[in-house]
Structure formats: structure tokens, C-alpha cells
Amino acid sequence: MASNVTVTTVIFYVFAVWAVGSALLCITRSNALASALWLVSTMFALAAIFVILQAQFIAAIQVLVYAGAVMVLFLFVIMLLNLEDVPHDWKRWPAWVVGVGLAAVLGTTLVTLHSYTPARLAREVSTMPSPVDPRLVFPEGNALAVATATQGAVGSVAQPLFQGYLIPFEVTSVLLLAAVVGAVVLAKKKL
Amino acid sequence: MPIDLSSPGGATLALLPELVLTFWALVVLMYVAWHHRDGHDMRTAGGLSIVGYIFAAAATAWLAWRGARPEGLSFMIALDGFRFASDALLLWIAAAVAILSVRWLIRQGILAPEYYPMLMLATVGMMLLAGAADLITLFLGLEVMSISVYVLAGFDRTRRASAEAALKYFLIGAFASGFLLYGIALTYGATGQFNFDLIGAQFAATPPTLMAKLGMGLILVGFAFKIAAVPFHAWAPDVYEGAPTPITAFMASGVKAAAFLALVRVLAEVFPALVDLWRPVIFGLAAITILVGNLTALSQTSMKRMLAYSAIAHAGYLLLAVWAHSDEGTAAVLIYLLAYSVTIVAAFGILASIERAGARTVRLTDLEGLFSVRPFASIGLSICMLSLLGFPGTFGFIGKWYLLSAALRAGQTTLPVIAMVGSAISIGYYLPVVLAMTLKPARTRQAHQTIRFPRPARIAVGICVFAILLLGVWPNTVLNFATQTAVQLRQSELPIGPR
Q1: pLDDT value at residue A88
Q2: pLDDT category, B441, cuts 50, 70, 90?
Q3: Which chain A residues are within 8 Å of B137, Cβ to Cβ?
Q4: Which A positions 122-151 lie with beta carbon below 8 A of chain B?
Q5: Is the confidence at residue B497, as pLDDT, over 50?
Q6: Partner-chain contact A186 B76, CB within 8 Å
Q7: B180 has a pLDDT exceeding 90
Q8: How many structural domains comprise chain A?
Q9: How confident is the model over B100-156, as pLDDT tens digits?
């Protein structure tokens, strides 16, 4: 294990601890504004992890859209609602049971997934008959790096988004339109 | 006309009906953005939306007439007779509901013309759901439909029951979507594919893993919620009762039809290799749904609630044809959905006209003596009840006949017997409606004086009732179309073998 420690691994763990720590602080603060700012911190750490994964474009979008635009909207809403500090009630046991149970399930999943490297997935899937090359479905780790090198950081996102998954992408915009119109219709005081 | 679905031009052509309808929904939305004051704007928006359904139906007919079929893989969206028939069915339901809504909304004081664009977007979602050839498209279609219908269920904003219906439907719907999405994720995890044909080919070649079986089970649970099959039906009566009456008709016919059409396609294209696994599940669902739906409907006094439980029972009958897993079964689902939607639209159209502004629950006792005051409305409602019952001479009988014979031909005898018992039980709640209208005297002299039956709704209901009778004795055209053209679910032509 020790021989595998590279600079990238160290940087990953730094940002991973940062992300998880900020997320924990985000959900434990009693002040909504502080929570929101810790969420921004989590977003930044996640963006850094995206860079490590060769997804610079996603990282930039993450900062611009989530840490920027979406969070500004959040802060606006929080300030408009003028929320007061709500002290946490730590004594409610059902919340604890559900929380610990969920954490246990997710933790088990993580430990199981730890043994599943992309190479192992590709090997297992390649035993199934398929008209598609299984390595395309479960790329062996460096596929994104290859795609980024040949198509550029934006191209490797745009290619699947606007060609392979064009129809779902467009349907999603219809979905959002329906949701926006519906929200206005239901929530507006006087139509 | 072979269409290459992986090219942008081909995808545009294949999605022409949905695109036309979406575009027209945007046009109506733009119109209502500036015109949303009074009844006149409501009527114009309704009329515009009906034009949109006609255009979309024309686009569907054009694709069907040109014999559109996919070149190579059926990518994201299906191009076959079944999709064209589904689109036509869903478009007709939506247009009929729009016609029923026009005056009803104004009379009930619901002056929000956004109703019509939402109805159109819901129809786009239903068409995508029923025509999907890919699990992603399937899920997105379902969500577009569901989100629009959640809003439509709560459209009567001043009424508590409507808000309650919307919230209940939303919470249960989100829950069901979660099941479906988890099932899709597991199926993808087991096969690495989203495309129906490719997943089906993999299952045919290799025995499915536990993950794939779990995925199929969760997908079935998600669908069971949407079609309101027992034990996933608890939301239906409250939601049907609280929603605006035309939307209740839309949910009972359109939403249910779209979910059933998608279920038939998924089981035929994705999971045909697992037929021995899902058949017992469908068997159990069908049996318990028929019995529980019919028995609970017996004790209802509110007409909308009674029809809600009867809708649950009808979902059980339809599961018979799903069990059959054959071309006859597919045709039977289409015929029955047409018969059921025609009947439900007419029945709810008449009930909507009887509802007074304000107090909006029509009880069985409210119908007493209707024949003496409003003979045509009461005869129409009687015909609807007989068609729902499956009385010979009505279209409902033809539909039920095909369901039973599809199941019998597939070698199933228990389910048809259960369905017959269920139909016998259903006499106990359909016939009292007819008797109350004809034999009992009106309670007061002023009874039924508040009934308003506007001309558009009268024409739509009249056509429906006429269709029930005509197709009940002369169903040949519809039957031929359904059994020859519409059942063409595309079989995979890909050379797929072990690598």
C-alpha cells in the first residue's frame, strides 16, 4: 500500500477529508446561513476532486453553477425567510435509529465497492454477451483521460450529452419547464 | 421509411408527434402568459390546446402512414405500430379531457388557463413513457407525466380536498419513482445497458443475475404504484376524489393507459427471458386487485370514489392480458384501454355536469330520479355503467372478452374465473346507479335543476356513448387494426451472441 502513495493520493485525501468535514459541519450548524456557507466549502472540495479525476470542465461548472449561482439563490431564500437559529434536539431517538441505519447501509456499500475496481467490473461484464464493447461501458480507469486528451475537456462532456443522450437531455428540459409552470400555478397567490 | 435514430435528423423525425405537441404547448403557454383574466381566455386556451392535439395526431398518422421503422438499433424511442397506436389513444384521451374541461373550469371558478399547457405537457410525458425504447427515456417520460399530473390534481387551489389530493399523489408518486429508478439502476448495473433491445438480448443469452432479478422486481413495484394495483393502490381513491373531475377522468384513463402500455413494452422487450419469474407476480397482483377493487367498491356512496375503486378493479382485469404475454394479449390491452377510456370519459363528463358549483361530491342518492328530468344524461350514464360492467352489446364487453380469451389462450384458467367472479360482484355497484336514476323518484321538486351540460361536453360525451354502442356491435375495424398493425412490438434484429 505504501508504495502506491503518490502526490495525487495525498491531495485526494486532503480534499476528501475537507469535503466530508464541511458536509458534517453543514448539517450540524444551527444557523442556516453558516450551513449554506459550509455547503459552499463542500462544493469547492468536490470541484478539486473532479480535477484529480481529469474532469476539469465539470470542476469549473461545479464552482460556477453550484458554489456560485445555486448558492446565491439559497442565501437569498434564507435571508428572505429570515430564519432563526433552531437548536438541535439531540434526544429524538427515531432520528438516531434511522440515521445510524442509513449510515450503516451506505458504509457497507462503500466497503463492498472498495473491492470493485473499474478493471474488475470490466472483466466481469466482458463475460456477458453484448453487441457493445464492455470496455466502453465500464472504462478501465483511464478512459476519461484518453477522451480528454483526444476531444478536449469540453468535448468529452459534450459528445455524450448532445449526441448519445440528446433525447433524454431535451426531455429533461421539458420536465423542468413543467415543474416551473406547475410550481408557479400552485404557489402564486393571485394568478 | 427507415429512420436512423442515432442521427439528430432521424431523432427529430422519430419524435415528431412529441415535438409538435411540446411546441404547441409552448405556444399556448405564451398565449396564457398575457391572457389569463376571464372565461374568454380560458376558452381560447382550451381551443388552442385541442388544435395542438390534432396536429400531434396528424404527425403520428403521418409517421404510421410512411411506415416509419428504425434503421438498426431502436435508439431511445421506439418506432413501431404499438407506439403509433399508443400515441393515438393517449392523444384522443387528452383532447377529450380538454373538451370536458372548457366550461367546467369556468363554472367552478378555476380561472387559470395554465391548466391546458400542463395537460399538454402531461400528454407529452405519457407519449414518451409509452413509446420509450430506453430506460432513461422511460423514466423521464414518467416524470414529465407525473409532475404535470401532480399539479393538475391540485389545480382547484381553493379547495382543501384538491390540495390534499395533490400532496398525497406527489408523495406516493415520488416514492414510486424511487422504486422504479432503483430498479432501473440495478438493471443497468447487471447489464451495462439502458436500451430495451440490448438488455433483452443479454438476458436471452445469459441467465440473469440476482441483481437483474431485483431490478425487475423494483421496476414492477414502480409500475404497480402507477397503475394502482393492490397492494399499491391506497392513494387512488383519495386522489381521484379530490382532483378536479376532468382530471380524475384523465388519471383514470390516460395515466393508467400510459403506464400499462409502457409495462407491456418493458415486459415484452426487456424481460421476455424472465417470463417465468414475473408471471407469478402478475398473477398475484391481478387476482388480489380484481377482488379487493370490486369488493371495496361495493361499500362506496360517493360516485367518484366508487369509480376510483372500479378503476382499481379494471387495472386487475388488464393485468390478465399482461400475464398472457402474447400478441393477443397486447392487442387485448389496446382494445380494452380504448373501451375503458371511452367509457370513463363519458361517465366523468356526465358526472361533471351534475356537480354543482361549490359542493362537488356527487353521491349515489344525488342521482335519484335523474331520468325524469334529464333522460339523455341518465341514459348515457346507464350505458357507461353497463359498458364498465361488460354487458353484451357494449364496447366494454368486447374489451373484456378479448382480455379473457388472451389469458385463456395462454393457458391460464384461474385468472379468467377470478375476473368473472369480480365482474359478477361489480353488478352490485354498477346496477344501483342505473336503478337509482330510473326507478327512484326525485327527492325534491328542485332536484337536478342545477345541472348544466354545455354544448362541447355534450357533443364529446355523445360521441363517446355512440362509440360505446357502435363498437359494441361492430368492432371489426378496431379489432383488425389492433390485432394486425398495433401489436407490432419490434423484435430485436441485432446479431447478438457470446463474445
Answers
A1: 64
A2: confident
A3: 167-168, 171
A4: 125-126, 128-132, 134, 137-138
A5: no
A6: no
A7: yes
A8: 1
A9: 998 888 888 888 899 999 999 999 999 999 999 999 999 999 999 999 999 999 998
Point out the residue among A129, A178, A182 whose CB comes nearest to the CB of B206.
Answer: A129
Q: What is the share, in percent, of chain B residues with pLDDT greater than 90?
A: 63
> What is the chain B residue with the closest CA to A167?
B76
CB-CB contact of B181 with B142 (8 Å):
no
What size, in residues, is chain A? 191
ipTM of the complex: 0.91
Name residue B285's amino acid.
L
CB-neighbour burial class of residue B407 (10 A; exposed 0-12, middle 13-18, buried 19+):
buried
Instruction: Report the range of poorest mean pLDDT among A43-57, B117-131, B172-186, B349-363.
Output: B349-363
| A96: number of Cβ within 10 Å | 11
Site of grid cell 502513495: A5
**Which of B29, B192, B494 is the closest to A125 by Cβ?**
B192
Q: CA-nearest residue of chain A to B162?
A: A186
Q: In this structure, are residues B63 and B92 in contact, taking their beta carbons and an 8 Å threshold?
A: no
Task: From chain B, pick out residues whose CB is under 8 angstroms from the CB of A125.
Answer: 192
The C-alpha cell at A65 is: 453553477
A161 CB within 8 Å of a chain B CB: no
SS3 of residue A115 by DSSP: coil
| Dist CA A133 CA A131 (whole Å) | 7
The CATH number linked to A72 is: 1.20.120.1200
Q: At A133, which amino acid appears? A: D
Q: What's the pTM value of the predicted model, to 2 decimals? A: 0.89
In chain A, the largest separation of any two C-alpha atoms, in whole Å, equals 67
Note whether residue A29 is domain-resident.
yes
Q: Is residue A102 assigned to a domain?
A: no
String of b and e for A11-28 (b: at least 16 CB within 10 Å)?
A: eeeebeebbeebbebbee
Q: Is the dihedral of CA B241, B246, B250, B252 positive or negative?
A: positive
What are the cell numbers at B226? 402507477
pLDDT at B494 over 60: no
Q: Let me know if residue A1 belongs to a domain.
A: yes
CB contact under 8 A, A171 and B128: yes
Query: Nearest residue of A to residue B29 by CA position?
Result: A181
Domain containing residue A62: 1-89
Q: Is residue A160, in this structure, part of any structural domain at all?
A: no
Q: Is A160 on the interface with B (CB under 8 A)?
A: no
